[in-house]
Amino acid sequence: MLALDHLAVSCLTLEDGVQAVEAALGVALAGGGQHAHMATHNRLLSLGPDLYLEVIAADTSQPRPAWPRWFDLDRFAGPPRLTNWICRCGDLDAELAFSPEGTGHPVALSRGDFRWRMAIPASGILPFDNAFPALIQWEGTAHPAPRLPDHGIRLA
Fold first, then answer.
1. Is residue 121 situated within a structural domain?
2. Torsional class of 33: left (φ above 0), alpha (ψ -120 to 50), beta (otherwise)
3. Distance (Å, rounded) from C-alpha 143 to C-alpha 101?
4. How does pLDDT run across 21-73, given as a tens digit for each residue?
5. Among 84, 38, 78, which residue's Cα sits nearest to residue 62?
6. Strands (DSSP E) found in 36-156
7. Which among 73, 103, 111, 150 could bridge 69 via Cys, Cβ 3.0 to 4.6 Å?
């Protein structure tokens, strides 16, 4: 079964995205870091105990990967904006068996004590012109949301 895990705000630079979200919501983003496999970096905002907002951009301090970045970040243009939704599942392989072609192939990723598998499309673009959710399977119990400061912002 799928459950909403987080929402992604894409931006040309992480600084622009953080500034836009912080100005719109009046709270500071926290956490985050680099994704070496995708040459991206992010900052996070709690939306509750099991949901968060991710502001993500290409990280030009890292070498560009030989494959397209997730969330179609290589072609991103314009102001920071909500671009993707990410659903967690207990069995990524089983979900992929029932997902549209192009949803992606499982890639094991980690940062600190976070471990996850994510379906990453070869093109960097999810089905239905990026409207289909990205799929993630967290390994173990570590999840970013409960570690983030809770400013009381919720998705309603």
1. yes
2. left
3. 28
4. 999 999 999 988 999 999 999 999 999 999 999 999 999 999 999 999 999 99
5. 38
6. 40-46, 52-58, 81-88, 105-111, 114-120, 134-139
7. 73
Domain assignment present for 73 = yes
Taking the C-alpha atoms of residue 62 and residue 74, their distance in angstroms, rounded to an integer, is 14
Q: For residue 152, is it within any domain?
A: no
Q: How many domains does the chain divide into?
A: 1
Which CATH number do you get for residue 66?
3.10.180.10
Structure confidence at residue 121 (pLDDT): 97
pTM, to two decimals: 0.95
pLDDT tens for 83-141 read: 999 999 999 999 999 999 999 999 999 999 999 999 999 999 999 999 999 999 999 99
Look at the block and give the residue holding tokens 């904006």: 81
> Does residue 32 sit within a domain?
yes
The parent domain of residue 121 ranges over 3-147
Whether residue 49 contacts residue 146, with contact meaning beta carbons closer than 8 Å, is answered with: yes
Question: 92: Cβ–Cβ under 8 A, 6 or more apart, which residues?
Answer: 106, 117, 118, 119, 135, 136, 137
